[in-house]
Amino acid sequence: MLTGSAAHGPQIEAGPDGKAAFRESVIVEMLNPKTAMFFVAFLPQFVDPAAAWPVGAQFLALGMIVNLALSLADLGAVGLAALARGHLFAQTGGNRVLFTASGSILIGLGVLLAAQSL
Asked: Fewer CB within 10 A of the terminal residue: the chain, N end or C end?
């Protein structure tokens, strides 16, 4: 959430702690129907009914492998974002740089979208 006055510019309030954020993200992802549809559409291609493992065990193992790989990628992205955020806000005017850069990117994308629709 953004707060602050015009004199000091917008400030970013602290969000939930890491455990609460992780718990909320797991709940959202488990209740997301797109997640279920992905696994229903993707995993059956790799299940072999003639294999030594039962089909259910194969689905479970494949699902765990996919979740582990994606979780590791997420952890890497979060770690890099935390490093970048720490370096950005260690400097004075970090908020201003962040909001100017993100606003410029959004304006540029809007101009690009408008130019393509002509």
From this structure: C
CA distances from 8 to 1, 12, 15, 86, 99 (A): 16, 12, 20, 19, 13
Whole-angstrom Cα distance, residue 118 to residue 115? Answer: 6
pLDDT digits (tens, 9 = 90+) for 27-43: 888 888 988 898 889 88
- Domain ranges in the chain? 48-116
List phi, psi (to 5°) of 50.
Answer: -90, 0
Distance CA 86, CA 53 (A): 47
As given in the structure block, the two tokens for residue 76 are 């890497």
State the DSSP code for 48. Answer: -
Q: C-alpha angle with apex 105: 110 to 34, nearest 5 degrees?
A: 75
Q: What share of the chain is helix, strand, coil (3-state, %, to 5)?
A: 75, 5, 25
| pTM of the complete model | 0.56
